[in-house]
Design a protein that fits this description.
One of its GO terms (molecular function) is metallopeptidase activity. This is Zinc-dependent peptidase. It contains ten helices and six strands. It has helices spanning 4-32, 37-46, 55-71, 84-95, 153-161, 169-180, 194-217, 231-244, 246-252, 254-264; strands spanning 73-76, 111-115, 119-126, 132-139, 141-144, 148-152. The strands form two sheets. It has a four-stranded mixed β-sheet with strand order 1-2-6-5. The chain has a two-stranded antiparallel sheet with strand order 3-4. The chain starts with a helix and ends in a 9-residue tail after the last helix.
Length: 273
Amino acid sequence: MPDVSFLLLAAIIIAAIAAFAIPAYKLRKVVEEPFPAEWRVILKRNFPVYRLLPTDLQLQLKKLIKQFIYEKSFTGCAGQEITDEVKVTIAASACILLLNRHSDTYAGLNYIFVYPTAFVAKREIVNSAGLVIEKPKGLLGESWSNGKVILSWEDVVRGNRNFTDGSNVAIHEFAHQLDHESGATNGAPFIGDSKRSENWAAVFSNEFRKLQQAAQRRDETVINYYGATEPAEFFAVVTETFFEKPREMRANHPALFEQLKSYYQVDPSDWIA
């Protein structure tokens, strides 16, 4: 007679394998399905940079969009309806950061909350008397370390349709999610080996300091001054600049451009005029 404990262990192992295999099979099926024609229309309307991408990157982006939408939960806030247009547009913003990188589609991200316009959140600040008080703050987007991104739909669309001004709230917030993959949102995403991390730290520290100086002097710069507030914001802001103003960044900040090119594994100057 077979050992009962052995049979029980075998059953548990089989169940565990099945629990893993079924979602993996479903995901593979989703990714392999044809990209819906109506989704292509949405991309062309709300993410026009898609039309500038080389064919291989277009194919990658469409697969990543399908996976992102399958894996993430979208919730509308303040009356915002969640439609295919909302999902595809936001997914495209997130997934352009993943092209050629062969990484997870934001493994730590589970929920996308979407407001129709800019939203108000309460934030604790220290006033002049040293007291901690709550103060309302208007926001276009937020990225949380507990697997949530919050976005203003109006500003997502505006940022995507004008993909040359260096300002894109969705790219900004998803860059924060990549930053947090290292365990802390501090402007130092997971790079890989120690040598590359050292080079990244040296270049980013130098460029961050230069932006702070430029902001103090009000010098003209291709990088938005908001990046001078802290290293995490610097990484998110230069990511926006890298994707939307690559040629200007390459001309004015070549070392920074090369670090971002190595990290993101694409060169947007090949497809952004």
